[in-house]
UniProtKB/TrEMBL annotation:
<feature type="transmembrane region" description="Helical">
    <location>
        <begin position="292"/>
        <end position="317"/>
    </location>
</feature>
<comment type="similarity">
    <text>Belongs to the chromate ion transporter (CHR) (TC 2.A.51) family.</text>
</comment>
<keyword id="KW-1003">Cell membrane</keyword>
<feature type="transmembrane region" description="Helical">
    <location>
        <begin position="114"/>
        <end position="132"/>
    </location>
</feature>
<feature type="transmembrane region" description="Helical">
    <location>
        <begin position="372"/>
        <end position="391"/>
    </location>
</feature>
<dbReference type="Pfam" id="PF02417">
    <property type="entry name" value="Chromate_transp"/>
</dbReference>
<dbReference type="InterPro" id="IPR003370">
    <property type="entry name" value="Chromate_transpt"/>
</dbReference>
<dbReference type="InterPro" id="IPR014047">
    <property type="entry name" value="Chr_Tranpt_l_chain"/>
</dbReference>
<keyword id="KW-0472">Membrane</keyword>
<protein>
    <submittedName>
        <fullName>Chromate efflux transporter</fullName>
    </submittedName>
</protein>
<feature type="transmembrane region" description="Helical">
    <location>
        <begin position="195"/>
        <end position="215"/>
    </location>
</feature>
<feature type="transmembrane region" description="Helical">
    <location>
        <begin position="227"/>
        <end position="246"/>
    </location>
</feature>
<feature type="transmembrane region" description="Helical">
    <location>
        <begin position="81"/>
        <end position="102"/>
    </location>
</feature>
<feature type="transmembrane region" description="Helical">
    <location>
        <begin position="329"/>
        <end position="352"/>
    </location>
</feature>
<keyword id="KW-0812">Transmembrane</keyword>
<feature type="transmembrane region" description="Helical">
    <location>
        <begin position="144"/>
        <end position="175"/>
    </location>
</feature>
<keyword id="KW-1133">Transmembrane helix</keyword>
Amino acid sequence: MENSKKYKEIITASTKLGLTSFGGPTAHLGYFREEYVNKRKWLDDKLYADLVALCQFLPGPASSQVGIAIGLLRGGLLGGILSWIGFTLPSVLLLMGFAWLITTVGSFDSGWLSGLKIVAVAVVAHALLGMGKSLTPDRPRITIAFLAAALTLLIPTALGQIFIIVGSGIIGYFMYKKDKTPDSIHIPIKIGKRAGIVAWILFFALLVLTPLFRPFFSSTLYSIFDIFYRIGSIVFGGGHVVLPMLEREVVPSGWMSADAFITGYGAAQAVPGPLFTLASYLGQIMADVPGAIIATIAMFLPSFLLVIGTLPFWSVIRTKSAVQASLKGVNAAVVGILLAALYDPVFVSAIQDHYDFIIALIAFGLLSYYKLAPWIVVVITAVLGAAVHYLI
């Protein structure tokens, strides 16, 4: 009875957050703190800050991983699953519905769809500024970011981005290995180290073996699982950084047009919850409802495995200077990859003339200086795009 009460509390709290958490991962973490720390008292600020540090250390969607971790602490493995479902499902259903609408309409030339593409320019630029301030606070990391941006544009492949991230981590290690590391903290998790090791083995097994066996399977759903699991496993920096990785997997291969991709990214700004549910939209276009389900599960499965695998060891890992130093280089590279994405595919796909650029400037100003919620900016930009389309 006590467990069922906990599970009901977890699904209720996480669904509330999934329906109301607009504004991207940083805003999500603020919503989480208000709900789980201030209101429900499930954990204190120190433990919450440590969970946030863990999830920023791991690849994947940081806010979703924090939600999963809190669910794990509160209700074990099932608690983590329920926490993820509640936070993720609302945006999954909305984006699947939007993808169905787009494929039914069959055209990406209408003004309001143009507005959704334009708003992506403002949102990515806004995210770039915010991430740049926190992740590239000194000249060495700014240099890493600029080099990463240049290399991302010169080597426009997912494999190239992996090498950029790994190389930046190595540079960060040598530059920052003498910096002071934080003290350890006890995390009261019910999952043991043995379960953590199993999770790590499964994580790497799927990451390595799935693409190796892909040539032997002609199944579209297998290909979808491979694409989204691999990207969910290697992307650092949150939803905005996943944009260039996904684009290079699904657009050049002919799964969808660049217009369809950017339109979905714009729509993802208008819904609450994690931006990684863009996978649901893309999967729906690639293979209808089964594709959306497989893409969503594949995108978030690495997050589950990484959180389960790392939590039992995190108290020790986070005190290692080598880990912290490498992470500084990786985070700087993330900013560079996002800078490259701002140009290609976002800007080149969305901005066709000076009217589009004016709308993008308005959207950026509303986000950055008027501090409007992203979903409101999306609606305004869609209306402006439609107005320009029909009046000019």
